[in-house]
Design brief:
Blueprint: H1 3-11, H2 25-28, E1 37-41, H3 43-47, H4 50-55, H5 57-66, E2 79-84, E3 91-95, H6 104-112
Antiparallel strand pairs: 1-2, 2-3
């Protein structure tokens, strides 16, 4: 696994304690009730952290996202990652606000080099 996603996963543990649950309420409302694992990510808090300064995540974020090794776009400030883990059918979802209208077809063709 590339180093940046591993570091981001570790950094999620250091999300500031002052971050209010209300900041994520709108995103959490879009997650299925059957989720049994939820991760709240303060993306802006991460990119302003001392670990970011040391590892230079801000510079790497765009290229890591475009290469597919990082699922959180550099244009979001917070994200909810949720999953249903365990026996039976599982699923994962990422919910993130964006100020940009998404063109899914264009994004998928660019990211996965598809010819649709």
């Amino acid at each position: 696994m590339p180093r940046l996603p591993c570091l981001l996963a570790a950094a999620f543990l250091f999300t500031p304690p002052g971050l209010a649950a209300d900041d994520f309420r709108d995103l959490l409302s879009r997650v299925q009730d059957s989720a049994n694992a939820i991760l709240l990510v303060d993306v802006q808090g991460l990119v302003k952290s001392p670990l970011d300064m040391k590892e230079n995540w801000t510079r790497k974020h765009q290229s890591e996202f475009l290469s597919g090794s990082l699922m959180v776009p550099p244009t979001v400030d917070r994200a909810v990652l949720a999953a249903k883990l365990g026996s039976g059918e599982g699923w994962t979802v990422g919910v993130m606000p964006s100020q940009h209208t998404a063109d899914i077809r264009r994004s998928m063709t660019q990211r996965f080099k598809l010819d649709l």
